[in-house]
Amino acid sequence: MSTLEVCLVRHGQSVSNAAGVWQGQGDSPLSEIGRTQVDGLGQALAGERYDLVLSSDLSRAADTAKASGVEVEHDRAWREIHVGDWEGLTMEQVVERFPEQIEALKARQTFAIGGGESWPEVFQRADASLAALRSRMPDGGRAIVFTHGGIIAALLSGLLGVRDQFPWPLGRMRNTGRTTLRFSENQVELVSHNDDTHIPSDLRQKYEPRPDQVLVRMTSITGDSESDDTGTADFNSAIKSARKTSAGGAVSVSGTSQQIALVAQQTAGASVNEFRFVEPAQGRSTELLISESHQMLLDYGLPMMQI
After folding, report:
1. Which CATH number does the domain 4-202 belong to among 3.40.50.720, 3.40.109.10, 3.40.630.30, 3.40.50.1240?
2. pLDDT class for 247, splitting at 50, 70, 90?
3. What residues are annotated to the active site?
């Protein structure tokens, strides 16, 4: 049985990202911080080998793809969602100028954002792009795609079967964050999500929980027969307590790889027969965001940062 591994990478921080404005298919270049992020990504990828390297043709993705150190194939199909007249505007300006679209967004209505693309159109484009990649590698192998947050979110929500839900259970992609998937027959496995540990600690995009949220940092440990029962009880109790309180701040817990994979599976609401979270290796970290209304995996299976 052949296995295809696909690594999805969001581009480094762009000038528009830094300014807090919508960019869509506008060709905003990498910022100074973005270039530093890409340098770190290049070091992380130095020992990796891929059979196929693809990238969006927009410069922020194409310049990030140079971190692969090999020849890159550029494809406009991997571009970000087209946001039309929203491009170059802050969210506050969008709310002021396009109130009817904001109301439609809140009501989960389908419309072309800023006159550009609708989410169903993006879903179709993203799915077609992934299908084309898979058709090129029928015997398996490794591929890496340098693309955009909206495209990665579209693909993951489709693979999980949660496009009709919001917010989606996997967190927003961080700049140069890597999500690694494995495809074999009819099953998809998620190895890691949103891995940006190659970035200097002070440049990583850390999530600050709101007062109605709790951030649970989970670290995988090796279980043993004598402590498994106690460890399971302690881990489950900590997660249950966090879900019950949702009172702000962050807590850290340790659990076995099986426990953490199970929490991820339950958070995503995915059938293990179709979409499976690979049990993280010992010492890997996962962040779970909990509020009264939803739960979200900000990342999954990341190597511990060296201090």
Report:
1. 3.40.50.1240
2. low
3. 11, 80
